[in-house]
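Here is the promised in-class demo. Please do not try to memorize the tokens; focus on the logic of going from shape to residues.
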């Protein structure tokens, strides 16, 4: 009888203890599994960004344009023919030098551009070179070249430059993608020169499409990324390493949001770009 009671108590103990053991195992192993998964995800993101950066940065240039110092423009109307919006500005970095002895004023716009063909054709924003005297570009390897302005469109805010060399040269270039395939939450990178901090990599996602702001007449791609003065003209690069937009503007009180001109809009405005980019 005592043996039967003993076996019965053991059985009841197993019944009550088993759920506790299972729960303990679950909580013991669960954090390890979650941490491992998180580490794999972080490593994947890190490799993703490193690969895109190493493949793209050599085709990104720093543009410095000495511009004519003009009298203050009438601010009642923007270049686009619509009322200006003080909440949005071009993402260009401007530096003014004043020589008090000779009363000479020099003003330079600094921005970004990217090479789209091996013979040195560059895409960027028109507002970087607007009223230019001269334009120079610096490559990631430190070489500096003068650049010629081949074509521009003020309203669309795009400019097409050519690196000027004394002899034939070959340059790294980026492929133009298809901005129609862009979707919200797509991962992107931006390489540019905010505040002249050259070849700065910013990562982020597409957070909106078809955004209408007063500094451009078409719907822009909104990106959640670090965008600052000097990022104008930066390539918006997708996960395949293709340019799907040109960074153009930003909210005046935020550096975490930027707007890019869709690359399909750029190609529609300058159809010859299709043939130029094929030369890469």
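The designed amino acids, position by position:
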């Amino acid at each position: 009888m005592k043996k039967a009671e003993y076996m019965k108590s053991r059985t009841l103990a197993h019944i009550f203890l088993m759920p506790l053991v299972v729960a303990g195992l679950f909580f013991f192993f669960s954090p390890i599994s979650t941490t491992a998964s998180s580490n794999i995800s972080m490593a994947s993101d890190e490799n993703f960004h490193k690969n895109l950066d190493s493949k793209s940065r050599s085709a990104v240039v720093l543009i410095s344009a000495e511009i004519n110092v003009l009298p203050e423009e009438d601010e009642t109307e923007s270049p686009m023919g619509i009322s200006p919006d003080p909440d949005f500005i071009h993402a260009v970095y401007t530096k003014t030098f004043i020589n008090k002895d000779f009363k000479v004023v020099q003003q330079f716009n600094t921005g970004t551009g990217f090479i789209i063909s091996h013979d040195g054709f560059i895409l960027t924003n028109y507002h970087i070179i607007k009223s230019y005297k001269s334009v120079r570009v610096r490559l990631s390897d430190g070489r500096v070249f003068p650049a010629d302005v081949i074509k521009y469109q003020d309203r669309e805010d795009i400019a097409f430059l050519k690196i000027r060399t004394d002899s034939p040269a070959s340059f790294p270039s980026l492929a133009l993608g298809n901005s129609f395939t862009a979707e919200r939450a797509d991962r992107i990178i931006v390489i540019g020169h905010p505040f002249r901090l050259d070849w700065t990599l910013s990562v982020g996602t597409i957070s909106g499409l078809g955004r209408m702001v007063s500094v451009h007449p078409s719907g822009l791609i909104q990106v959640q990324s670090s965008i600052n003065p000097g990022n104008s003209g930066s390539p918006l690069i997708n996960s395949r390493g293709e340019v799907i937009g040109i960074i153009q503007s930003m909210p005046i009180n935020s550096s975490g949001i930027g707007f890019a001109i869709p690359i399909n809009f750029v190609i529609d405005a300058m159809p010859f770009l299709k043939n130029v980019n094929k030369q890469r």
